[in-house]
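My current task is to audit a protein record that another person submitted. Please read both lines and tell me whether the tokens look consistent with the sequence. Do not assume that whoever made the record got everything right. I have pasted the whole thing underneath without changing anything:

===
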Amino acid sequence: VSTELSQGCARGCDLCSEFNGCLRCSPKLFILLERNDIRQIGICLPSCPLGYFGLRNTDMNKCIKCKIENCESCFSRNFCTKCKEGLYLHKGRCYVTCPEGYSAANGTMECSSPAQCEMSEWGPWGPCSKKRKLCGFKKGNEDRTRQILQAPSGDVSLCPATTEVRRCTVQKSQCPEGKRKKKEEQGKQDNGNGNTNRKDTKDAKSGTKKRKSKQRGAVAPATSTSPAQ
């Protein structure tokens, strides 16, 4: 920096040199260094031009160039607020097209987030089920749904999910068809046991009848009586 100071500094400049222009701007103004061949010329501005952002310091406010590719205006060194013509802005960066899952909002060059979809409140959780059954298990899934009330540009594919699923645990209960099968199997077993019991009962009754018949057909032994004397 040249130390040769001139008396006639430009308006808003507190300190200047003939070789490097302004060296210190008045408070509230920003100093912008423009390259001219091998020299940097300082000028004072109320706000920074396109492609630069203002950084305020206690000693001097500076205009710093945006470091983002194809950025026309930025908020900080790495966050763009406006891209060059024909490019889309998304989360502080510039793109030829919006990233997957995003689209330009309302005809602007800013990619909208899926979060901008207007969604209804979640409905209640449904019953706990497994493989479309409501019984015969301990751990299953339950779900709930919501509706898309409004989507950016009418494209519902940009909106978040309308169904949510979570794991659930219930007290294991037997299905009605399982109970019927169990009853049928139990009935078959009872019938089988019943036939055996009936047969045993018949055999027992038959044996009793035979014993009674033998007792009826038995001849009592003859007893002799001696004549009375």
Remarks:
- The mean pLDDT is 76.
